[in-house]
Amino acid sequence: MKKASNLLLSKFNRQRSIKAAPLLSRAYIFENSPSSSSSSQFHSTGRHLQCCAKTRGLIFKLHQFQTNPSRNLNTLRKLREKSDLEEAFESGKTSGEMFRVFKDMEACEDPEKALSFADRALKVLDQDGKPSLLVAVALQLMGSVSYGLKRFNDSLGYLNKANRLLGRLEEEGIANVENIRPVLHAVQLELGNVKTAMGRREEALLNFKKALEIKEMTLGKDSKELGVGYRDLAEAYVSVLNFKEALPFSLKALEIHRKGLGHNSVEVAHDRRILGVIFTRMEEHEKALEQNQLSQRVLKNWGLSSELLRAEIDAANMQIALGKYDEAINTLKSIVQQTEKDTLCHWEKFADSKRCLEIACGNLDKKETVSPIEVAEAYCEISMLYENMNEFETAISLLKRTLAILEKRPQEQQSEGGVSARTGWLLLLKGEVPQAIPYLENAVEKLKDSFGSRHFGVGYIYNNLGAAYLELDRPQSATQIFAVAKDILDVSLGPHHADSIETCQNLSKAYSAMGSYTLAIEFQQRVIDAWEGH
């Protein structure tokens, strides 16, 4: 899911609390940056980043396979071609002939057949057990096809084996390094994509960085493709909420594209949009708005109306963050005038707003099977509108529908974790504590896999989980969970951050509920000292 990630935990704003007991961390949605592909649509600030790095310009790059080849008008012709290719493969005498046939087979759009051919080619090429570049290419192809089939563990195995083999070929000088690099680049990008799909985003970053280093060695410093590579890596850092590391790569991408393509390039508009996302997350809203406005000019010149609309929504959010409410209202009114008649909403009236949202949900229901991820993002955004109107029951219902979509897609587990966290938080606000706990526990597991166990977002969820246990009169469990939350937030945010202090306050309450008054007083004193120095 891109943004609204593509939706998921970006920061917790402290808001309401259960009774007068522990202080809750406001659930947040992890947001994804826009797609880096120049042909893709922009997405408003707040969506889950999909695979950040694309396998552009790689040798043996696989096509997007259709799941139903029978939809093609030329099905019969393709089947005849496939039969001819099978015969050609059977009669192939050399490895070169076999790989030429394999590449032709990709055009038949049958991933299972492509995988079968790659496996057979590997067995032929690897008969003597000696390392060769063709064996590495076969493994890379098997990894790529397995990824397309969502067999992520199989894909990871093939790609890791290819990576080790390529390292050996380079180390032992068995193959020319110039021939190794394109294959190694493909392998590193595929490894990054697979690990991203498995939720191992921090590990994926290392592969994306290695892929970029190969690009830097093989391409000119002003290459457009290198600029795209810098932007891809910036997006990868945005997806793990590391905006400080993302910034220099995004600036490099902008510099290359502005120099080579000019200020009015769509690539430059994409770069500026990413910069807007980064500056917004770094709370440098003036800079974010400046980049957004420059991006809007380009989009307007190119007549990219849907992308322009999303950029205007971003601008409204930035104006609100800067306290420019009148400007934000004017921007939103302009957006409303550009939308279809049945989506118009009278902003001042809740009843009309609710009716508008009901119509939107009805339209989305019809598109769930066609565009599930986009529908999930929309459900999430609509749920937040209902939440703002204190319609928690409807908001929770929409989040559950979002989860039902995301749970079927392993590559969306970061988004799933964020939505699960928000669902649990809203259930806590409604006082449905036992029902909230499974959602919070699921969120912890999903987000630990995506961001690591020491990420501040995980700390916030632990804080809410501790509050739930304390509400259920389980102070010992609450104490353990609050202690974990405090350790994470002290390291990631610092002990004098407001959220860290509130978690320490919760820990004091939990010790008090246990009757451990000495410890309760000790942590309460820490809270007092921290606020005094705040």
From TrEMBL:
Q: Which Gene3D superfamilies match?
A: Tetratricopeptide repeat domain (1.25.40.10)
From which domain of life does this come? Answer: Eukaryota
Question: Which Pfam family, any one of them, does this sequence belong to?
Answer: TPR_8
UniProt cross-references to InterPro entries, sorted A to Z: TPR-like_helical_dom_sf, TPR_rpt
Q: Which UniProt keywords apply?
A: TPR repeat
- TPR repeats sit at 185-218, 376-409
* Keyword Transmembrane in annotation: no
Key word rRNA-binding present in the record? no
**Protein name per its UniProtKB record:** MalT-like TPR region domain-containing protein
Q: Which organism is it from?
A: Gossypium darwinii
